[in-house]
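[#protein-structures] MJ: dropping Lysine-N-methylase here for a structure pass
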Amino acid sequence: MNENTLMPSYMKQFSCIGGDCEDTCCAGWKITLNKEVYKEYKKTKNLKLKNKLKNSMRMETEGTKTKNDYAYFILDDDKKCPMLTSESWCSIQQELGEGALSPTCATYPRVLNHVSEQFELSANVSCPEIARLALFNEKGIDFEQIDYEVSGNWSLARLINTNDTSNYQHLFWSVRMFSIEITQNRKLELCNRLIILGLFIDRIQKEIDAGNTVDIETIVADYRNKMSDVGYINAIQNIAVNTDVQVGIIMEILQFRHKQSATSKRYDQVFNEMKIGYGVEQIDTPSSKLFETYKQNFMVYYAPYMNRHEYVLENYIVNTIFSKAFPSDLSIIFKEYTAIMIYYALMKIHLVGVAGCHNGLDHDIVLRTIQSISKTMEHNAHFARSVIDLLENNKFNSLAHIATLIKDINVTTNIT
Ligand code: SF4
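AK: finished. structure tokens for Lysine-N-methylase:
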């Protein structure tokens, strides 16, 4: 059914490239089936699918089984969905049509939100084709409101009621639009835009925590003025970078991630290249040699690419703000900002390491790195929450600390 839908313009160009895709949607994931789809698959009369489906589906155990999380596919030895053809197309879609897919498979890589009585459609950069369309547009991500056919089989990720004043959610549009405006302000380096974004979000969080009526127009006007105030910008630019602390904390987050399961071959390749780039066998306690290698890689191999293509990471942040419907919960807006900054910091530390391995970066390397990190980490629902807990437990969760995580080395200063 056609719906008035807000979306980034790149969505109009997206269609799955199936067998030509360098990854597959489901590699390494748990592919869940709801009760209705499971029952339909069980009674299929399609001779090509019947036995395969019977042997590949398992019911969730009693106690964990819900209507939406009712069964799953057992992945093959390559951690791929057993229903993929040898050309990597989905055999269920080929044989029974898109309407027969479970909502999880039908929706991916799309993200469907419902905000202020209208649908919003975007997509995850964990899909290589979306990463190509969303990240590598030099002009930046823009948005359109169009009449679009929204499938009834797509699952809704978030429902946001922006009329609710009791929990400050009425501030949603002003905060989100200004957050995107700050992120796309190319007069400043991206890391400095993200610090100003943090200052803006921190101010709102403090007003909310104090139970104040938030005068959002005044706050937005104040930060817009600050962004054209040379003294203010200089002060942000001159915040000192403690690279050793930055690298140490992000490496700790990485170690924490590696204690959890679920990865993918593409991410394993990126992880190994990062270790080669840093000259280490394992990501364990960072040494002074690793700190030095980080600084050299950053200046010699990472910065030359990023100075010309910083829009790639800008597009990543803008896409994340939109697809996660930031701020989806104003009462914890600073935590939501922190989660986005953690992913940004993780992307950067991988890219700096991988740049060292390849003696530089190009679009293909950057795409593979961002896409595989997104797939391995952003799709793990508990990961960001656990990292925020980790930062809170170590009292490393103030804006000053988050700024330490995201600030770039100034390549014009002498770092020795
Ligand atoms: S990851 Fe994207 S392009 Fe690749 S098969 Fe899945 S939807 Fe298609």
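MJ: nice. The pocket of iron/sulfur cluster is lined by residues 16-18, 21, 23-25, 109, 127-129 (CB under 6 Å).
AK: one more thing. Residues 240-406 form one domain.
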